[in-house]
From TrEMBL:
<dbReference type="InterPro" id="IPR003382">
    <property type="entry name" value="Flavoprotein"/>
</dbReference>
<keyword id="KW-0479">Metal-binding</keyword>
<dbReference type="InterPro" id="IPR035929">
    <property type="entry name" value="CoaB-like_sf"/>
</dbReference>
<feature type="domain" description="DNA/pantothenate metabolism flavoprotein C-terminal">
    <location>
        <begin position="185"/>
        <end position="394"/>
    </location>
</feature>
<dbReference type="GO" id="GO:0010181">
    <property type="term" value="F:FMN binding"/>
</dbReference>
<dbReference type="GO" id="GO:0004633">
    <property type="term" value="F:phosphopantothenoylcysteine decarboxylase activity"/>
</dbReference>
<dbReference type="GO" id="GO:0004632">
    <property type="term" value="F:phosphopantothenate--cysteine ligase activity"/>
</dbReference>
<keyword id="KW-0285">Flavoprotein</keyword>
<dbReference type="GO" id="GO:0015941">
    <property type="term" value="P:pantothenate catabolic process"/>
</dbReference>
<feature type="binding site">
    <location>
        <position position="287"/>
    </location>
    <ligand>
        <name>CTP</name>
    </ligand>
</feature>
<keyword id="KW-0288">FMN</keyword>
<dbReference type="Pfam" id="PF02441">
    <property type="entry name" value="Flavoprotein"/>
</dbReference>
<comment type="pathway">
    <text>Cofactor biosynthesis; coenzyme A biosynthesis; CoA from (R)-pantothenate: step 3/5.</text>
</comment>
<keyword id="KW-0456">Lyase</keyword>
<dbReference type="InterPro" id="IPR005252">
    <property type="entry name" value="CoaBC"/>
</dbReference>
<dbReference type="GO" id="GO:0015937">
    <property type="term" value="P:coenzyme A biosynthetic process"/>
</dbReference>
<keyword id="KW-0436">Ligase</keyword>
């Protein structure tokens, strides 16, 4: 369904990334009005915004005066998103300034407002910015956590604008009423693993699986939308990092194990990754060559550690662990056995095959809990399924009370 979106652009070098966000919104059929600050036009000019949006671009409240544009834009907007939101823009928005068209529009907006900050780490961490972000959030605005990565020049740290694809996911989630409507995970730390690990036979070949990471990333997005602080441990995933998540990239099962052990203070852990059950016992340090007679070289396998079981044995009081059982046969029997062995609170059981589970955008599952309960989830989007499972997580967190991972 086509919606009215105001895309605010503040004066930072990341303004060029907003062009991609604009393109995604317009290609989805939304009507987008770009409202840059005067400083933003020093990075991307008005003709670019007008060409991409098909709408006029103004920066001041004295443009198109008969239409009282700042009021009209705010009233008609189904969503206002500011990307990038600089430290200056956040400060002016928090104090209610209305000295250009964008800040005046923010005051007139009655729909949801999203800020996607981008600035140097020191500016993001400054007490003034921290206070301004807290003020905006207290008023109901959604302030997406910036990414960690390369900033202007040689600097690296927290303050990078999230990927436009990830910001577009936030836009769609807000418009669908899935983002920011519930804050039942606010103050909680949720760790999610995603993707499939690789175990190397030699420097160029590996044993792996078909996991795309889509279900794990859906859990991360759903938890972020409910206010959680999210650590996403991704094994060989080629997806945009969900806006606001702390990403930890791993490759092998042992690397996945170490990353999850390091995040063991979490209130909830969702083990959506597909770690390899086996690894080569003696990986070759050079490429394995074909034998002259065409025979198959011997391959000896060793068993990988059961990460979920290890964390289940070390589970803290109040912590909730969610395991997964991707099965081709005997789904519920295998899932029940894994639930007990891994000492998890919940296990999500789903069938996998050539055309189901791996790489798809939808999923169906049965969730078993340690108390003997069962929840059947018919086919739905992976984000919707993640929300259904997080409902069960929130329920258990409420019963168990807040753990040591609470900030």
């Amino acid at each position: 369904m086509s919606r009215n979106i105001v895309l605010g652009v503040a004066g930072g070098i990341a303004a060029y990334k907003a062009c991609e966000l604009l393109r995604r919104c317009t290609e989805a059929g939304h009507r987008v009005r770009v409202v840059p600050t005067p400083a933003a036009l020093r990075f991307v000019g008005a003709p670019t915004w007008e060409a991409l949006s098909g709408q006029p671009v103004h920066t001041g409240v004295f443009d198109d005066v008969p239409e009282v544009e700042h009021v009209e834009l705010g009233q008609r907007a189904d969503l206002v998103i500011v990307a990038p939101a600089t430290a200056d823009l956040l400060a002016r928005a928090a104090t209610g300034r209305a000295d250009d068209l964008l800040t005046a529009t923010l005051l007139a907006a009655r729909g949801p407002v999203v800020f996607a900050p981008a600035m140097h780490t020191e500016m993001w961490q400054h007490p003034a910015t921290v206070a301004n972000v807290a003020t905006l959030r207290s008023r109901g605005a959604i302030v997406v956590e910036p990414d960690v990565g390369r900033l202007t020049g040689p600097d690296t740290g927290k303050g990078r604008l999230p990927d436009p694809a990830a910001l577009y996911e936030v836009v769609e989630a807000v418009l669908a009423g899935r983002y920011g409507q519930r804050h039942d995970l606010a103050g909680r730390h949720v760790v999610v693993s995603a993707g499939g690990t690789r175990e190397y036979l030699d420097p160029v070949r590996f044993i792996g699986n078909r996991s795309s990471g889509k279900q794990g990333y859906a859990f991360a997005r759903a938890a972020l939308a409910r206010g959680a602080r999210v650590t996403l441990v991704a094994a060989n995933v080629a997806l945009p990092t969900p806006a606001g998540a702390q990403l930890v990239r791993v490759e092998t099962t042992e690397q996945l194990r170490q990353a999850l052990l390091a995040a063991g203070d979490a209130d909830a852990m969702v083990f959506a990754a597909a770690p390899a059950d086996f690894r080569p016992a003696h990986p070759s340090t050079s490429k394995i060559k074909k034998t002259p007679d065409g025979t198959t070289p011997p391959l000896e396998l060793a068993v990988n550690p059961d990460i979920a079981a290890e964390l289940g044995a070390a589970k803290r009081p109040g912590q909730v662990l969610v395991a997964f059982a991707a099965e081709t046969d005997d789904l519920l029997e295998n899932a029940a056995g894994k639930l007990a062995r891994k000492r998890a609170d919940l296990i999500v059981a789903n069938r996998v095959g050539p055309d189901r589970g791996f790489g798809t955008d939808t999923n169906a599952a049965t969730v078993l809990d340690a108390d003997g309960g069962r929840t059947d989830l018919t086919e739905m989007s992976k984000v919707e399924l993640a929300d259904e499972v997080l409902d069960l997580v929130v329920s258990r967190l409420g019963v168990l009370g807040r753990g040591a991972g609470h900030e």
